[in-house]
Amino acid sequence: SSSSSSSSSSSSSAALPAVDDSDSTSSSSSSSQSRDSDSADPLDPLAQFKCATTISPKRGMSVLRDPWFTKGTAFTHAERERLALRGLLPPVPTSLDVQKDRIMYDWAKGFKDRREAESREKLELARSGVTPEMIRRHRLLQDLHDRNETLYYHLLQENFRDMAPIVYTPTVGWACQHFAHTYRNARGMYFSANDKGEMHSMVYNWPHDQVDAVVVTDGSRILGLGDLGAGGMGISIGKLDCYVASAGFDPRRVLPVCLDVGTNNEYLLKDPLYLGLRQKRITGDAYVELVDEMMAAILNRYPRALVQFEDFTANHANLLLERYRNHHLVFNDDIQGTGCSALAGVLTSLAAQGLRKCAIKRMRFLVAGAGGSALGVVDSIRQAMVRHGLSDEEARRNFWICDHHGLITTARDPSTMHNETAMKYARPETKYEKADLVTAAEAARPTALLGFSTAHGIFTDRLLKRVQHYASHEQLRPLILPMSNPTSNAECTHAEAVFATNGRAIVATGSPFPDADHDGILYPNNQANNIYTFPGIALGAVAGQCERVSDGMVMAAAEALSKHTMDVYGDANRMICLNPNDQKPIRLFPPLEGARNAAVDVAVGVVVQAAEEGLVRRHRTGALEVLENKGEMSLRRYIERWMWSAKYASISFSAATVRS
């Protein structure tokens, strides 16, 4: 305040006419002497240490939000320690010149010009399915996010169907790729290899004392785009936007996290604007130690928070999930969320054909891809088969898995595989080792195709027709799930699957595709997006005060989503009679505009299953007591009351609530 008053007084004095009196002369002389004394004296041994220092009355996030005091990413390591900024910014300080270059890059070339002028950018946009208009809308929403969070989330909740592809896939993939070039404002927390030994203290730089959900990535496998390093923060932010919009999490109680252990992406390492550590990725025991320290720091401060792992490479994804899942409230969306979404689609396809869930035992799956997501889906479907009567060994026999070498059999050397856990599904028919998809199909006679290979076009017309033929022998319509992202990596398009099977295939894709018109019938595209499952799983786990996320809870989420889908569409989504030659379009997932209702139904299923497994904490007014005493409808209302809605509230001031 005194500084402001002094500045105001100085400005007022400068506007007044000069007064020729002794006091003024004395004051002027004193001021002049002060300036002279402050000037550098070449003979002064301390002259080299003199520098201008600005005293900030703020620290933490407050100084980052102040347009006068903030330096953005240019705060030095020492300043970050003094001002409680460690972890609130990308780990590598940048210079004013680099920040200038970032702005001038946009100044010189708009997105439209870039797309036309730069072949790399043009290729990326074409492959990802992201248009310049989607980029414009993404930047518009992010600017709003920085200015007014309530309005931002209100718009997102009211227009989720239209805005979800902008704040989440596919546009979020582009945002992660260009994170360093479009960086504007601090959001989330960064833990890096340089923070080893300091994470327990730096987590307290986060300004909120209550956190319900954390999404963490190491940026090593963002969507289908590969290693994006510190740019992975974009996916953590995008995921939590869906938590808020779809599942009603309070945005003040969610925490996006990026663990920066380096990057193996040479393009990023050479990019002068890159914001992450310029080193190759840490691996092995050193990597696990960093994750352990980060997890301990987060859960020490927020012991009831749910931690979701996002876009880790397959070897680390499985390792970390198994390391923490039996002791803490964690889940991996790429493994469990993708498995849940795919299983929900499978169950809905059976229900639409008039079949019970136990008919899943009759299905045989040919799988392209052996990464974490592929095995997460296979594990979920296998567990459903076991639940409906098969032994574990019998269920495993219903899967034929191919990696980039071909079919995996017991003849395979595990050391040659990217994901050795796929060996638990290795086929005993060693003569088919490394067989291609068509040859494997002849041996497997599959009724369904699952695609996680990121290999464009490998679900050929010939393969699709064969799967239709094999499915018809089981009195089933073929199920085709090309799940790879982005659109350019899809094993086939929605239209290709429809045309090849003459409209008989039930299709769901991982990427968005337009609806297909075949023989005068419109076949709506089903996008098997995790956006239908992870918000509801998180909502049930947190609002229900669950201790862990079990496989049974994930399966219950899939069954709840399938039931919700069939309830939404009713008889319009049911075949009149079981006929494998039926061409009726089938919807496998609910409309996005009803995402909050879907999340609540999934959450109820999760809590009910958790209660059966004894995984819900008892609390006098908690979810378990509501369920036991009043039933599922009351539990649903309990969860709905827990959810946050974006509305303006009356605001008053209290000095006790002020925090730097």
Task: Please work out how many helical segments DSSP would assign.
Answer: 28
| Sheet having the most strands | 6 strands, mixed
Sheet with the most strands: spatial strand order: 8-7-6-9-10-11
- The shape, in one word, is globular
Radius of gyration using CA atoms only: 28 Å
Strand content: 5-15%
Please give the alpha-carbon distance between the first and last residues: 17 Å
Poorly predicted tracts of residues: 1-37
Overall pLDDT metric:
88
Provide a descriptive summary of the structure in words.
This protein has 660 residues and is of the alpha/beta class. Helix 18 packs across helix 25 (551-569). Helix content is 46%, strand content 8%. Strand 7 (399-403) and strand 8 form a beta hairpin. It has 28 helices and 13 strands.
